[in-house]
Specification:
By secondary structure, the protein is an alpha/beta fold. Strands 5-4-1-6-7-8 form a 6-stranded parallel sheet, sandwiched between helices. The chain is globular, with a radius of gyration of 18 Å.
Length: about 270
C-alpha cells in the first residue's frame, strides 16, 4: 500500500540529483562552427527569425529559459524579451527543441556522449534500494531525458527530477524535485507540472554537478553537493565554490557511491 509504505520509503532513500551537461553528458562537435547548446540556438533562431550568435554567452550551470533570454538580449532582441507575446514564442521554441536536438545528431552536427564512469555508476546506483536517482538540470522536462537517451544512457533509471521548465532560476529547482520524489514514492509516477515542496518535506539528498551554480543551488536549500571537474570548471574552482566533495570525474564507481551515501551539508569529505 503506497499510502502506508510511502513515508517509510521516503525516510529510507537518499535522493541523488544529477546535473546533465558536463556531469553525465558532454557534447562533441561534428563540424566546425557548432557550439554548445546548438540545438537551442537553432530553435531560437527559427522562431525569432534571426541567426543568433552564441559566442558571447556561456551556457554552463544555467537554465534554458535563462539562456534563451541572454541569447536574445546579446543579439539585440531585447524588445522581443519584453513583448507580451514573448512567453508564447518561447514556448514555441521549447516545443520545437526536441526535434532540433534529434536533427542535429542525425545530421552529424554534434553528438552527445556519456562521460567516463557514468553508465556504470547509473547502473550500480539503480540497483541500490536506498537510493532514488533523479535529475536537477537546466534542460527542459522534455529535453533532459532525451539528451540522456541520445547519449546512450538509460533515462528511465532517473525516477524524478527538476528542470529549467519548472523555473528559470536554478536555485529554485530543488523543491520541485522533492515534490516529484514524493509523488514517485506514493504513486510510482510524477506529474509534469508541480508545485515546489516545503523544506519540512525534504528527504536526505545530494546534488551532483560540474559548476559553481550546482553548488549554489544545492546550498540554497541546505543540501550537500558533490562537484565533478568534467565540465568547464577545474577542481580548484569547485573547491572555492564550497562543494562538500570535489572529484576529478565519476570514473571510480565505488568511491562515488560511498561518498554519495556519506556526504553531509557543510561537512567536507576527502575523496581519497
Amino acid at each position: 500500500n503506497a499510502e502506508t509504505w510511502g513515508p517509510l520509503l521516503s525516510f529510507m532513500h537518499r535522493l541523488a540529483l544529477f546535473d546533465i551537461d558536463g556531469t553525465l553528458v558532454t557534447q562533441h562537435r561534428g563540424r566546425p562552427g557548432i557550439g554548445s547548446g546548438q540545438a537551442l540556438v537553432n530553435a531560437l533562431s527559427a522562431v525569432f527569425g534571426r541567426t543568433l550568435d552564441a559566442s558571447t554567452v556561456r551556457f554552463d550551470g544555467k537554465t534554458d529559459p535563462g539562456i534563451s533570454k541572454e541569447l536574445l538580449v546579446a543579439n539585440g532582441l531585447s524588445d522581443e524579451v519584453f513583448h507580451p507575446d514573448y512567453p508564447k514564442k518561447l514556448q514555441e521554441v521549447f516545443d520545437s527543441l526536441p526535434a532540433h536536438m534529434e536533427k542535429g545528431v542525425a545530421d552529424g552536427d554534434y553528438a552527445y556522449q556519456a562521460l567516463p564512469g557514468v553508465e556504470t555508476l547509473i547502473e550500480r546506483l539503480s540497483q541500490q534500494s536506498d537510493v532514488c536517482l533523479g535529475l536537477l538540470t537546466g534542460n527542459l522536462i522534455t529535453t533532459g531525458p532525451l539528451k540522456l537517451r541520445l547519449a546512450g544512457l538509460p533515462e528511465t533509471r532517473f525516477k524524478v527530477g527538476a528542470f529549467g521548465s519548472d523555473s528559470a532560476n536554478r536555485n529554485e529547482l530543488v523543491p520541485y524535485a522533492v515534490t516529484r520524489y514524493h509523488q514517485w514514492v506514493k504513486m510510482g509516477s510524477c506529474e509534469t507540472v508541480v508545485e515546489p515542496a516545503q523544506p519540512s518535506d525534504f528527504p536526505k539528498m545530494v546534488v551532483l554537478g560540474d559548476t559553481p551554480r550546482d553548488v549554489e543551488c544545492a546550498h540554497a536549500h541546505g543540501v550537500p553537493c558533490i562537484a565533478v571537474a568534467t565540465g568547464r570548471h577545474d577542481v580548484e574552482e569547485l573547491q572555492a565554490a564550497g562543494a562538500e566533495v570535489v572529484l576529478k570525474d565519476l570514473a571510480d564507481t565505488q568511491r562515488v557511491m560511498d561518498l554519495l551515501m556519506r556526504v553531509e551539508y557543510k561537512v567536507k569529505l576527502q575523496p581519497n
